[in-house]
Design brief:
By secondary structure, the chain is mostly helical. The longest helix has about 40 residues. The chain folds into two domains: about 200 residues, Up-down Bundle (Growth Hormone, Chain: A); about 230 residues, Up-down Bundle (Growth Hormone, Chain: A), CATH 1.20.1250. About 75% of the residues lie in helices and about 0% in strands.
Length: about 450
């Protein structure tokens, strides 16, 4: 009988799972208080502050909110590239986080603490301050978000890590979204006080994250691309990233319109500006209560399936809001609660899927480019979120919305109120529906990341 002498091949041991220590999880999570607060407060109040306190025309106010974010398309990838290349005793990401912590709170407070100006001069002042704020925020946000993909290579460990992050996101949005309007009120002095208090929250959160991530594990060091153009080329080469970018932009565009429209919806549809706080509580409350459920759903139905469910809930809730004028405040709050449950899901899943995309790119190309992908993703996210406010501002301006200050309130034309109702509800519903369609094309799963070779066909 013929015998074949086949040498025994001993497989290489699988790399040990890197588990992120609880202290680092908490420290990293606290840092999201600043990102959530900064995303929430200007998105909720800045447009309304300019049109109803500083008497800035709505179309100009929309531009002021939007144009500084266009700068993010350049500054965010640049920060990602530089943080990929940084070598220091503090690590690659943390020096940039510290720079952001020392500059963002000051710039934010100045945005709402300007001289006694109204109209176009007030708009110019806010535009300059908000431009500086956007730059300072990029210094912190891009390296902070890139760290998640560098702490562990495990698919489900990333969701667990980000679950801690989202708990702090929920707390921050809850406190800032409910507290900031209450402190700001309807007078310029209230907005000035609000700016100072929020600036203090930003400072404490960012410094806590800087200190809390000092012992964060790093599974591998990121590699920098040589130029901004090369960063865009690298991003375009990843099919999963481009799909994620598309669905995330659709969702953030929808959220930007909804958030900017909330004060107008409360004031002109429900007839009570104070309901801005209760509506916002319905949006952010689920962030605190449903995170474990969304993590379970992402394990049970994969992140793609859970994302489709979250976006569908968001779309259904916003579409149903068009009937709020007929059915009243209680009905509106129930609709917004459904929106909040869906919003909680795609907030968690966007970040977790971004980390998966970064890991997939490393498996396919052999390169670590966390800063490249995070920089471009955060830039697009913030631009389209601000674009929501721009679109709403232009819609209000086109339908005759009248700017005012607290001393001279005005009645709004019926067309403007209709624009608040339909534009602020149906447009977000449509965009969330588009994100559902895009999510069906997202290819990454736990199994595909374990064997990434078949996914080469989606590259490019």
């Amino acid at each position: 009988m013929l015998r074949l002498n086949v040498p025994m091949v001993t497989p290489e041991p699988a790399p040990a799972l890197v588990t992120v220590p609880r202290g680092v999880r908490i420290g990293y999570g606290i840092g999201s208080v600043s990102t959530a607060t900064f995303s929430t407060v200007p998105g909720l109040l800045l447009l309304f502050y300019m049109t109803n306190v500083l008497a800035v025309p709505a179309w100009i106010a929309g531009l002021v909110v939007f144009l500084p974010k266009v700068w993010d398309m350049l500054i965010n990838p640049w920060v990602g590239q530089r943080s990929d290349r940084t070598v220091s005793r503090l690590g690659a990401r943390r020096p940039w986080m510290l720079l952001g912590a020392l500059t963002l709170p000051v710039a934010f407070a100045l945005t709402f603490a300007g001289p006694p100006l109204t109209g176009v001069p007030a708009a110019l002042y806010v535009a300059v301050c908000y431009f500086l704020t956007a730059t300072a925020y990029a210094f912190y946000e891009v390296p902070y978000k890139a760290m998640a993909a560098e702490m562990t290579d495990d698919y489900h460990e990333r969701s667990s890590l980000l679950q801690w992050k989202m708990v702090f996101v929920g707390l921050a949005i809850l406190l800032s979204g409910a507290g900031a309007p209450a402190v700001a009120g309807t007078e310029a002095a209230g907005y000035r006080t609000m700016g100072l208090l929020v600036g203090a929250v930003l400072l404490v959160s960012m410094l806590a994250a800087f200190a809390g991530t000092a012992r964060a594990p790093m599974v591998a060091r990121a590699e920098a691309e040589p130029s901004i153009r090369a960063q865009f080329a690298a991003a375009r080469s990843s099919g999963p990233f481009m799909v994620l970018l598309g669905l995330s932009c659709a969702q953030m565009f929808a959220a930007g319109i909804l958030l900017a429209g909330a004060p107008y919806f409360a004031a002109y549809v429900l007839g009570d500006p104070g309901m801005t706080t209760t509506l916002f509580l319905c949006i952010v409350g689920p962030l605190l209560l449903t995170m474990p459920a969304w993590v379970w759903l992402s394990r049970r139905y994969e992140k793609r399936g859970a994302m489709i469910l979250g976006a569908a809930l968001f779309a259904a809730g916003t579409a149903a809001l068009v009937l709020a004028g007929e059915f009243g405040a209680v009905y509106a709050h129930v609709c917004v609660l459904a929106v909040g449950i869906g919003y909680a899901g795609f907030q968690l899943l966007q970040f977790s899927m971004l980390s998966d995309v970064i890991v997939h790119d490393a498996l396919v190309t052999g390169k670590r480019r966390a800063g490249v992908f995070t920089g471009l993703w955060t830039a697009c996210e913030t631009v389209v979120f601000a674009f929501g406010a721009l679109v709403l501002g232009w819609l209000l301006g086109a339908t005759g919305f009248v700017e005012s200050d607290p001393g001279t309130p005005v009645a709004q034309p019926e067309a403007a109120v209709t624009a608040v109702l339909y534009g602020g509800a149906l447009l977000p519903a449509l965009l969330a529906g588009i994100s559902v369609l895009l999510t069906t094309r997202y290819p990454l799963t736990a199994a595909s990341l374990a064997t990434p070779e078949p996914l080469r066909s989606v590259e490019g």
